[in-house]
Amino acid sequence: MIALIQRVSQARVDIAGSTVGAIDQGLLVLLGVEKGDDEAKAQRLAQKVAKYRVFSDDEGKMNLNVGQAGGSLLIVSQFTLAADTQSGNRPSFSSAAPPAEGERLYQVFCEACKGLGLPVATGHFGADMQVSLCNDGPVTFWLTA
Question: Which in 11, 15, 121, 135 has the greatest CB count within 10 A?
């Protein structure tokens, strides 16, 4: 399971011209689910995202996690993170979880984040989404469980 997190001052997801999820300060989480991922990985990755210290404290050091900074999460499914790009000019998605399993584990991850007390907005799994964001920093990290 892969989470590409970006510290944002704002982010939103639109589908067919309508906003379905939006946050102000927080983390945009692009989530990729791979074959072999399970509930335990989803829980571990949710903990890691919630605790990852990427927000500045009063001294300007990255010492605060999203909750301590008063931020929210915008979680968007992103199966292309599981792409194999090692050969050729076209990515292979053979390592991505099948859609039904990917959606199930995406929901497990979202619920785990909510269970940690974080405000969570989402996109819609499998939809054609337009994601807009203002990356603050820019600050971007690749996390795995």
Answer: 11
